[in-house]
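[job 0412] stage=fold_complex status=start
inputs:
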Amino acid sequence: MNVAVCDYGAGNVRSVLAALRRLGADARLTRAPRQVLAADLAVLPGVGSAASAVAGLRAAGLDEALQERVADGGPTLGICLGLQLALEHSEEDGGVTGLGLVPGRAVRLREGRVPRIGWAAVERFGGDFYFAHSFAAETTAAIAHSEGVVAAAERGSFLGVQFHPEKSGAAGARFLAECLSRA
Amino acid sequence: MPLPRLIPCLDVAAGRVVKGVRFEGLRDVGDPVELGAAYADAGADELVFLDVKATVEERSLGSELIGRVADELAIPFIVGGGVRAPADAEALLRAGADKVAVNSAALERPELIGQLAELLGSQAVVVAIDAAAGEVRARAGTLPTGRDAVAWAAEAEARGAGEILLTSIDADGTRNGYDLALTTAVSDAVSVPVIASGGAGGAHHVAEALRLAQAALLASILHEHPQRLISLREELRGLGVALRDAA
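[job 0412] stage=fold_complex status=done
writing structure:
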């Protein structure tokens, strides 16, 4: 199983690679659009700010590669900011245009302590998952929630999750194994 | 709100987990990767690796070690100690850390907090505050700063901190419980999550702290024994504290 993890200069991508490799996947960090298009599964990780992430994706041509990949039905997973970037728009950093893979926008969390940091149940995926975010998706494509926050959204071959499966212990490993088996 | 978190703290010097009264009589108690993995298996929600020699000498918790931790652990971890510049923090995150904790450098140059938040996102920036009698101390608790701990916590949040790691020097090591008055004051003053630290002697102390703060740092209460975390989690559940399902 060949997994392309998009490298656009984001923070901690090593954990994503490690989690996929523990499951036996041949996961590689790449900024080559060709590899993102060819992989069995593409992962758009996400740590950092929306504006710099989108700029990084565009500079490498990964925005178009991801759009083309999803249009062709290629399995693609967005994690945390990776979900927010896939939306049409984010209100982070004064407003950022996203990739438009999923309808909707990312809005700042207004309830509870922000950033929302910690473990919370996501019933659909059977367990507690680790979240660390200040923005969340508002979308008609939501397929799972956690404490009123969109935990996952799906459109076509793109699945985006707000939590960090690579940081969610055994539950996260089960989730990633399911993504790999579906790809 | 997400579930309350239990965060074991591992003091690291020269690449090994050490135990001691801060700087004196450091004793080697194990390998950071092995001990970290054992805590993760025992149900830790998150870990802190604190480079206890970094500010005095140079950094001893290098990228290679952090990378090995990230490769082995499937839970988040904070790295603190010796973070002085945005480039230090960026290197730690690239190596595999999820968050960095800053303390003395932020007191010397408060604008560092904003620089880190812009570069890494607030969720990756923990401002650690060591307080004695309500006053912030720098340099591992040795240097009084004249700053009020509550005011500094609020300023840190305003500058972009995503979490406050609050250690009461008065309570630390006493085993008489967390400093609840200080924890309440800081928790009320900020809207970011607060990690309470210092003073835990038993499960009831941790439960008390978790009513006020979103997480509790666990140090000497665990005696560097991951097995102790398993029993502590059971005791806390018995006291009505909801903890994550780690299975």
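[job 0412] summary: The domain at 2-182 of chain A is CATH 3.40.50.880 (Rossmann fold).
[job 0412] exit 0
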